[in-house]
């Protein structure tokens, strides 16, 4: 199908939902915290929350632990309006992920508890139970491929989604600590990219997939020519280069006083896809995604910081930018 399914505004998102604990008062380091702000987290859940806030429908496919933390996550999915028909609570020693973070840039710390993570227990049976006809596009992040049985399940989901005519969107999201080795990660992430219609990653992630530092941009260009219809090569403060429709589009960023570095990629993905779903031209969609990223890094939390359409439009109307690419 290519990217046509995005316009349906019905997204199936593979990957984790978790709990985020943000040190308070805002700006304090975790060791000096007087309290904690509790919110929903996890890259896939954050993307889903951003999409729903921007007027799309999103459902999650994952596993959570059958305990109080897992129930918190299920309650949060309900509160955000994210479908959880395909979220399975599991009994055993596996636990839902927990992230403890600073809301500050200088000396920022994030401590992630993912030993024996519940979301890695997503199985092929879980993804085969999905009614793919009810969705226009599938989104996956690289984290779901880091361990079994989640890896095989996610690859199976990509195959089923392609067979059902869904657009497949892949956020590379490479996190070395989750993988058994760099070689396994490179092989698996490259396989996922080959099955995807939209590929989004940063310069370091594309370098990694290329296998040679400094070759990431060439890798992105090659993927656009051979696999993905759209490839977004993010360059941090230098903006992004997007390959689409045989064109190369360079865009800048919106500068803000950042409170934290986390959540930008998830918010970019949600804003970018929601804008494409609304029929925005490619360059406008990229810039709206960049604006969403800027909004989120300037606030505590990730899912709660995702903007609504009114908040995004107000930001674009009042904020200078973007910078020159």
How is this structure best summarized?
The protein has 325 residues and is an alpha/beta fold. It has helices spanning 43-53, 68-80, 124-128, 150-163, 182-194, 203-210, 216-226, 264-277, 282-297, 309-318, and strands spanning 10-14, 18-24, 35-41, 57-65, 83-90, 98-101, 110-113, 137-141, 167-171, 198-202, 230-234, 240-244, 247-251. It has a single domain (4-318), classed as UDP-N-acetylmuramoyl-L-alanine:D-glutamate ligase.
Question: What does this 3D model show about the protein?
Answer:
With 325 residues, the protein is an alpha/beta fold. The chain has one domain (4-318): UDP-N-acetylmuramoyl-L-alanine:D-glutamate ligase. 35% of the residues lie in helices and 23% in strands. It has helices at residues 43-53, 68-80, 124-128, 150-163, 182-194, 203-210, 216-226, 264-277, 282-297, 309-318; strands spanning 10-14, 18-24, 35-41, 57-65, 83-90, 98-101, 110-113, 137-141, 167-171, 198-202, 230-234, 240-244, 247-251. The strands form two sheets. Strands 5-4-1-8-9-10-11-12-13 form a nine-stranded mixed beta sheet, with helices on both faces. The chain has a four-stranded mixed beta sheet with strand order 3-2-6-7. A hairpin with an 8-residue loop joins strand 6 and strand 7. The longest helix has 16 residues, at 282-297. It is globular, with a radius of gyration of 18 Å. The mean pLDDT is 96.
């Amino acid at each position: 199908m290519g990217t046509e399914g995005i316009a349906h505004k019905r997204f199936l998102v593979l990957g984790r939902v978790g709990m985020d604990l943000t040190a308070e008062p805002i700006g304090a380091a975790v060791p000096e915290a007087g309290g904690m702000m509790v919110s929903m987290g996890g890259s896939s859940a954050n993307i889903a929350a951003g999409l729903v806030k921007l007027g799309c429908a999103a459902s999650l496919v994952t596993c959570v632990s059958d305990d109080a933390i897992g129930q918190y996550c299920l309650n949060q999915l309900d509160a955000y309006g994210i479908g959880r028909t395909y979220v399975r609570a599991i009994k055993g020693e596996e636990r839902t992920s927990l992230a403890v973070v600073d809301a500050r840039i200088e000396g920022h710390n994030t401590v992630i508890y993912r030993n024996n993570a519940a979301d890695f227990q997503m199985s092929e049976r879980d993804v085969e139970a999905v009614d793919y006809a009810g969705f226009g596009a599938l989104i996956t992040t690289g984290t779901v491929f880091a361990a079994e049985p989640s890896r095989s399940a996610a690859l199976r989901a990509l195959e089923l989604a392609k067979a059902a005519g869904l657009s497949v969107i892949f956020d590379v999201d490479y996190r070395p600590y989750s993988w058994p080795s760099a070689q396994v990660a490179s092989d698996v992430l490259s396989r996922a990219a080959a099955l995807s219609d939209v590929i989004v990653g940063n310069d370091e992630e594309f370098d990694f997939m290329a296998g040679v530092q400094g070759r990431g941009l060439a890798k992105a260009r090659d993927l656009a020519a051979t696999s993905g219809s759209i490839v977004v090569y993010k360059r941090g403060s230098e903006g992004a280069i997007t390959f689409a429709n045989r064109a190369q589009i360079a865009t800048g960023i919106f500068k803000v006083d950042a409170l934290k570095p986390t959540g930008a990629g998830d918010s970019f993905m949600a804003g970018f896809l929601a804008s494409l779903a609304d029929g925005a031209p490619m360059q406008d969609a990229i810039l709206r995604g960049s604006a969403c990223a800027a909004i989120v890094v300037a606030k505590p939390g990730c899912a709660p910081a995702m903007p609504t359409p009114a908040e995004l439009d107000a930001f674009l109307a009042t904020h200078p930018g973007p910078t020159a690419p």
